[in-house]
Amino acid sequence: MNRKEKKKTTLNLFILLIFTGIVLYFSLKDNFEEIVSQILTIHPLWFLVGVGLVFVYLFLRSVEICCTIQKFKPSYTFRKAFRLMLVTQFFNAVTPFSSGGQPFQVYTLKKDGLRVTDGTNVIIQNFIVYQVALVILGVMAIAGNYFFHIFKEVGLLKELVTLGFIINTLVVVGLFIIAFARKFNHKITNLGIRILYRFHLIKDKEKQLKKWEESIEQFHHGAKLLMTNKWLFVRSIFLNFVALVCLYLVPVALLYGMGDYHSFDGLLSVVASAYVMLMGSFVPIPGGTGGLEYGFIAFFGNFVKGSKLNALMLLWRFLTYYLGMFLGAITLNLKKKEN
Fold first, then answer.
1. By the 8 A CB rule, do 279 and 157 touch?
2. What Gene Ontology cellular component terms go with this record (predicted)?
């Protein structure tokens, strides 16, 4: 990281710490002793199941990206892919909308011997299949709630989830349009750049035009490579789908660890988690801090109440967010020492 990027990361970490402090204050202020007691008395075995589910998520996503990278570099190892996925967790955690992971991945793949164009194609393919898996789970969650009326006390949040789902779906549709409608893309790019230039929002029209057209060509090439290997495409979506399901099962493992086997089951855990993550796409703070916690309380609050709900949320947030961030930071530090 250069000096400018370090400053930006430090600022994001500072913002993250402030919002984490606010979340902790509001979560603990009313029933501090009860919540701490719930956390400390969780059954170790079920807590380890929760940790295991997070590692299965990381493992499956590492397998998926490793298979994609090996199409460009057959000698690339799973060990490298797993380390890449861990450090990506850190950069995603400390940047708004998880935007920091992908540039780091391209940079790391370049250091591992892939050309920048190949590295970019890997990340494009990885992003497409992840978004498709996310939308499939979103469809299932929204359909489940529509037919079985799972959430009755969330009000406006249900509309926000629907909007989040629409946005994620439009992202997938947009990705496929960019990937396959070349002439249409070039026309839209030309029109967009000309409008921005006319309103003096960009200076060098030709430079921006060239830059955007190169990006579109690169994206088109990456998507085309993915679609020519249909088995890789389907397998990658499946691996991401199963990985997300594992992550969405973490709350039910933690609930069982608290000795509660009745409030909600695995299916409800997946549906509620999918809703939380769809809503979290709106939060422009690193890690979606504040918004995701609020969403968790709102949706899982349909099944669990009081100090147990707050304890569950804090444990869930630690496993699904902070654990990956800490492991990523440690891996990044070890990698720097090796280099």
1. yes
2. plasma membrane
Tokens of 217: 């060509």
224: tokens are 């085309």
Task: Give the pLDDT band (50/70/90) at residue 99.
Answer: low
Distances (CA, A) of 65 to 71, 215, 298, 323, 328: 10, 21, 34, 21, 17
Residue 11 in any domain: the answer is no
Please give the residue range of the domain that contains residue 102: 39-338
- The residue assigned the tokens 């979506």 is 237
d(CA 206, CA 208): 6
The answer to the question of residue 294 being in a domain is yes
**Separation in Å, CA 301 to CA 144, 183, 184, 269, 308:** 18, 49, 46, 12, 10
100-114, 138-152, 271-285: range with lowest mean pLDDT: 271-285
- Name the domain count of the chain: 1
Does residue 73 form part of some domain?
yes
Taking the C-alpha atoms of residue 254 and residue 277, their distance in angstroms, rounded to an integer, is 18
pLDDT tens for each residue of 23-46: 666 666 667 788 888 999 999 999
> Within 10 Å of residue 337's Cβ, how many Cβ atoms?
7
200 sits in the region (left: phi over 0; alpha: psi -120 to 50; else beta) called: left
pTM: 0.84
Confirm whether 258 is domain-assigned: yes
Q: How far apart are CA 126 and CA 314, in angstroms?
A: 30
